[in-house]
Structure prediction request, 325 residues.
Amino acid sequence: MKFRLFTLHPDLFTSFTSVSLIARGIAKDVLSLDLVNWRDKFGVGKYKQVDDKPFGGGSGMVLMAEPIYQSLAEYEAISPLYKPKAEAPAQTHEFQNFIDNLPETQDVRDLMNYHKRVLPNNAKFQKLVEESKATSSPITKATIMMTPRGYPVTQQVCEWLATNFDELNIICGRYEGFDSRVSELVDLELSVGSFVTNGGEVPAMCMIEGVARLVPGFITKTSSVTHDSFSSGLNQYIEQSEYIIGKNNLGKSPANSSIRQISPEKPVLFNDNTWVSKYLPQLEHPQYTRPTIWQEMSIPPVLQSGNHKKIQQWRIKWHNLNNSL
Prediction:
């Protein structure tokens, strides 16, 4: 299993990759962990800028979409769900300045394809993965964005990731988070809990440990993880059935057997209706930063209106305005 971490702080992973079972897994070539600092190669300008001020005002800085896009493209890690329109127009400074300085009476921005995403891609991507298994090109890698707005990481999610993929690309956010248009580029948005950390690195480590221990060969004794808490094989010691139901009864599946057969049905890991009702009301509004138009997606016009009352109303009700997928 290959883990590729996109992070602005690769040093945070130094001890994580050099001690304990993760280090042993790397030494055995059961897994690999590559670190990509997207500031180094794709940061903008002399100072390698990767963040900028948020549209609509507010504290902190927001991670820009373009450096992340370039970095994911470098490793062919952009979601197959992302379908950009032809070629996006060149973002020259003159063009950007023209857009940014349009009089408020102009309605050009209202006619543009401004960004309206509410739901993560998770449910769509899970369906796409299942459909791809019947083709000659099954999907074997996924790009994950660690974010508080993501679906919760559960044992079932870890099992699904370990079973279906041999490469996981994980983007770790910082500051006030990602320009919301980055959500178009990723397959999955995941969270380790309903709380906020300083960045996505520590949550990524949690998820990597949860997935890695399920990769064949990582844990020498498979039964050590088969019956873990929350797992699909919880307390179902099927490998010891010889001792539980007796040698003479093996294969007979007696009706009174205490060995429960695990259902082969595919679990519904990502239910959009549950996410909308349970998690969406607790989430902060989307953040956007320059450029105003990126990959033919403009920021919501209200954020450039200069009308703080309308901006505040949008931030409170953003998820009710458009439930576009």
In short: The chain has eleven helices and nine strands.
